[in-house]
Hints:
By secondary structure, the protein is α/β, with parallel strands linked by helices.
Amino acid sequence: MTPAAPVFVIDDEEAVRAALGKLLRAIGVASEMFSSAQDFLERYNGDRGGCLLVDIRMPGMSGLDLLEELHRRDIHLPAIVMTGHTEETSLERLERLRPIGFLEKPFTLDQLKQKLARWHPTEETPSADR
Length: 130
């Protein structure tokens, strides 16, 4: 798997970001790391494709808040949502946002690869409807 567009890893835990970066490099996938949803919003200008790999629970703006904000801005990036804490209200919001995948931490490399296989970066654009 060698997508041209990166996976945007958004997680508040530095160790998680580092581990995911190594896993993605090992399978030939480019990535960019963000320590918070706000960090991503400040640095991403909506002009290119990619796939979000975002944690649900983070201090400040949550991963779900981020997905809703991107939708309000008419930026429709495919998203794989990660969580270590599943809550009914989060699942209801998540269902409305229609991510391409959901991973419960801890997850395996094979599980991550399976979710990434649903992403086809050559067909995605930042403003494409999903």
